[in-house]
Amino acid sequence: MTTKVIMPRLGESVVEGTVTKWLKREGEQVEEFEPLLEINTDKVDTEVPSPAAGTLLKVYVGEGQTVQAGTLLAVIGEPGEEIPEAPEVAGATMPVSAPAAVEATPVSSVAPSPPRPGRQADLGFISPVVARIAAEHKVDLTQVRGTGRGGRITKKDMLAYLESRPAGPAPAAPAWEQPGSGELFRPSEEVFGGARPPASQPEAEARALPGTVQPLDVVRRSIAEHMVRSKRISPHVSTIMEADMSRVMAHRRNHKEDFAHEGINLTYTPYFVAAAAEALRAVPMANSSWSDEGIVLHGAVNVGVAVSLGERGLIVPVIKEADQMSLRGLARAVQDLSTRARSGQLSPAEVQGGTFTITNHGVGGSLFATPIINQPQCAILGVGKIQKRVVVIESSEGDGGTQDLIAIRPMVYLTLTFDHRILDGAVADQFLGLVVMRLESWA
After folding, report:
1. Which residues pair with 293 in a beta bridge?
2. What pLDDT is stored for residue 148 in this prediction?
3. Dihedral angle of Cα 155, 136, 343, 196, to the nearest 10 degrees
4. How many CB atoms lie within 10 A of CB 144?
5. Contact 35/21 with Cβ under 8 angstroms?
6. 294-297 and 288-291: which strand pairing?
7. Do 254 and 378 reside in the same domain of the chain?
8. Is residue 314 part of a domain?
9. Which of 184, 303, 337, 413 is the most core-located residue (most Cβ within 10 A)?
10. β-strand pairing of 356-360 with 379-383
């Protein structure tokens, strides 16, 4: 009896996915839960495990094709079994051979195979984290008792099983759980402290060849479509203010070592997220989206932080309920999400549901910029390079008057690009002014 491999629905709002790579060819053997293919949704690559052991009899959707969730991708069975006819898939070329396999880690929501005697029936659905732990620790899932909904195996079940079995050599912690990497807002002296290593000769020559056409990958095409759509539907307006970062820098200097003892790399990012989250609560219109029925005010403050992937583009993981988190919690979340973003370990749910976005263009030396709104949000905050500049400040005098003084302060330009259908200039300035006030009064 053949088993169908179905395009999973990864997240409530994800209704389609793109097949980026087949890890097995037609005719090759595949084990149950072994990674079978990679799909891309919302610029996140996810490996889908095989729902059954057997032979990959037929691949219906080729690499680079985007199809709806629930679409038949392939069938697994035994040689000689009857193969279902190829479904009609818009834009897909069938049949397609799949390329050779590479390493993997799991995820999924594929059609389950019939349960074997004595096996838990819920093994047809294995969450990404459970499948990853099983692969890393070579766990036979049939030996794990599931306590989740419908008997599904949860992360807690996996950890309890690992603790109960005989201890072996401890595996190295994955990169995204190790402290000291993944910071987004670094001090200028760290960013520009050393020269970048030059590109290798073949890479440099490949980029320099006149007339070279760089093929569009799934991420680059997604970015292009998203940016063009945003500029087309939203009237973009930008307002720019500057903030004195003296208090933030002093606070970071005094607490960085304490955070490091807990494995947290305290960067400037959490300060900007905290200031923005507080301002979003005070100005609800900045935490909204446009709809034909009216302006949708979001109850949750979910702040997305843009993470550069180098030449691969960028991605925006989301810190959910950011306004409910302490600076320590924000720092931990920023470190975790940014590190896993760069190592390709985010799940689709972690890049969805954002209500506001922060992007740091200052790490490249940019003083200020006018970023494009991340739809369907109504605004995006751009953070420039933190730079020491000569400024005029007011100093109180003994008689109650003030005196102008020239001082050197670490300053940063903040740009708020907003949808003028939703926000007017006065409201946008009110929001950005609150962000500045919070940063300058940090204690």
Report:
1. none
2. 67
3. 140
4. 20
5. no
6. antiparallel
7. yes
8. yes
9. 303
10. parallel
The pLDDT value given to residue 137: 74
Residue 319, H or E segment: strand 318-319
Answer yes or no: is 255 within a domain: yes
8 A C-beta contact, residue 409 and residue 228: no
Separation CA 83–CA 58 (nearest Å): 7
* Residues 158/160/166/167 CA torsion (nearest 10 deg): 90
Torsion angles phi and psi, residue 281, rounded to 5? -70, -40
Distance CA 333, CA 328 (A): 9
Per the structure, the complete domain to which residue 58 belongs is given by: 3-164
pLDDT of amino acid 276: 97
Q: Which residue shows structure tokens 């997305």? A: 304
Q: What is the mean pLDDT of each run of 10 residues along the chain (443 residues)?
A: 82 72 90 87 79 90 86 89 68 38 35 38 55 71 73 76 67 39 40 44 56 78 85 94 97 95 94 97 96 92 91 87 96 93 85 93 89 94 95 81 91 97 96 97 93
Residue 398 has φ and ψ, to the nearest 5°, of: -60, -30
Return the active site residues: 420, 424
Alpha-carbon distance of 1 to 55, in angstroms, equals: 12
Q: Are 16 and 120 in contact (CB under 8 A)?
A: no
Q: Nearest-CA neighbor of 139 among 124, 153, 149, 121?
A: 153
State whether 158 and 229 are in the same domain: no
Q: How far apart are CA 391 and CA 410, in angstroms?
A: 10
Question: Distance (Å, rounded) from C-alpha 7 to C-alpha 9?
Answer: 7
Task: Please tell me whether residues 146 and 222 are part of one structural domain.
Answer: no
pLDDT at residue 111, rounded to an integer: 40
- Residue 402 neighbours by CB distance under 10 Å: 10
**Counted domains in the chain:** 2
Q: What is the CA radius of gyration of the chain?
A: 25
Is the domain of 298 the same as that of 375?
yes
- Report the candidate in 8, 219, 3, 218 with the shortest Cα–Cα distance to residue 107: 8
Q: Which two tokens stand for residue 381?
A: 């905050």
Q: How far apart are CA 3 and CA 19, in angstroms?
A: 19
Give the whole-angstrom CA distance, residue 344 versus residue 38.
12
Q: What is the pLDDT of residue 117?
A: 37
AA letter at 146: G
